[in-house]
UniProtKB/TrEMBL annotation:
The active site is at residue 179. The chain holds residues 1 to 306 of 387 of the full protein. The gene is rlmJ. Belongs to the RlmJ family. S-adenosyl-L-methionine binds at residues 19, 42, 100, 118, 158-159, 179. This is Ribosomal RNA large subunit methyltransferase J. It comes from Massilia agrisoli. It catalyses: adenosine(2030) in 23S rRNA + S-adenosyl-L-methionine = N(6)-methyladenosine(2030) in 23S rRNA + S-adenosyl-L-homocysteine + H(+). Keywords: Methyltransferase, RNA-binding, rRNA processing, S-adenosyl-L-methionine, Transferase. It comes from the Bacteria.
């Protein structure tokens, strides 16, 4: 099903949670010099114009990056995310929002590799065009040599299948973002099956899954199914910005990030930042967060906060 266009939702509270966590994961991967591969199974268009077309229609960024833009009291790790977005808007006016491939490109080093899948013909073309511009700009600024060969590969194709060809990665280090639309309820099953297969191919990869928190059964059971996957540790974080209503009415109120093999640095950062996000993005008394973690080595030791 290819009706989904991420531009409608760019910069909303769910993007804030997803990209903030993504940047934390890159920061951790960057602590070692050894190269790593970033795999984006569902890349979207890469960059979104907030003041035109799709994104301006519902202005969902006003539930997310909008309220954070002028804040002077951002926790340091959240400021790293907001500053990355600001870097794409040198005029100071919030006009463009970076998707996950752009966040990755900004965070990653010369030696690292980006492997980006996008199935939608229009979005995969926009993604390729955006990356060409980003590369040309970086080369013109002297930030990187031009013609960087195979650092970034974009494939118009199905990320659920494409990932199989990439694991294990040559450097034995990988960060994978899995962010399908979930408009087709089969996506929940496909994510779980893909993770089971990927963990068998590469048990030590860091896998980050974004998902909507909805009333529908597939969504309610989703995190519990991921907890049963054979990985050493996991963290599940959710952000709810308003009291949930029935599915299908109004905008998304809640989403989660489920991270398999998370870095040890992630949980303390989440404990600091999630209450702040609830305070700034929360719309009513229903706004809240949860953090759960578990480890297979100790059975199912689960801690829940928030
Ligand atoms: N990860 C992006 C970001 O954070 O900026 C947003 C991705 S958006 C939520 C989901 C994208 O997956 C859409 O652009 C959609 O066209 C694409 N898509 C849907 N099914 C796909 C598949 N099987 N393989 C690759 N891309 C797919």
């Amino acid at each position: 099903m290819l009706s989904y266009r991420h531009a409608f939702h760019a910069g909303n509270h769910a993007d804030v949670l997803k990209h903030f966590v993504q940047i934390q994961l890159h920061e951790y991967m960057n602590q070692k010099d050894t190269a790593y591969t970033y795999i984006d199974t569902h890349s979207g268009a890469g960059v979104y114009a907030l003041d035109s077309g799709y994104a301006s229609k519902n202005a969902e960024y006003e539930t997310g990056i909008g309220p954070l833009w002028e804040r002077k009291d951002l926790p340091k790790s959240l400021a790293a995310y907001v500053n990355l977005v600001k870097g794409l808007n040198p005029s100071g006016k919030m006009r463009y929002y970076p998707g996950s491939p752009y966040c990755a490109d900004k965070m990653m080093r010369e030696q690292d590799r980006l492997r980006l899948f996008e199935l939608h013909p229009a979005d995969s073309k926009i993604l390729a065009d955006n990356f060409r511009k980003v590369e040309e700009h970086a080369a013109a600024q002297g930030e990187r040599p031009s013609g960087r060969g195979k650092r970034v590969l974009i494939e118009r194709g199905d990320g659920f299948h494409g990932i199989k060809t990439l694991l294990p990665p040559p450097s034995r280090r990988a960060l994978v973002l899995i962010d399908p639309p979930y408009e087709d309820k089969q996506d929940y099953r496909k994510v779980r099956d893909m993770l089971a297969d990927s963990l068998a191919r590469f048990p030590s990869g860091v896998f980050a899954v974004w998902y909507p928190v909805l009333q529908r059964m597939e969504s309610r059971q989703f995190a519990d199914k991921l907890k049963r996957l054979p990985c050493k540790e996991w963290i599940n974080v959710t952000l709810t910005v308003t009291t949930p209503g029935p599915d299908g009415f109004g905008p998304l109120h809640s989403s989660g990030m489920f991270i398999l093999n998370p870095p040890y640095t992630l949980e303390p950062t989440l404990r600091e930042v999630m209450p702040y996000l609830v305070k700034v993005l929360g719309k009513d008394a229903g706004a809240t967060f949860t953090i759960e973690r578990g480890a297979q080595v100790t059975g199912t030791a689960t801690a829940r906060v928030g």
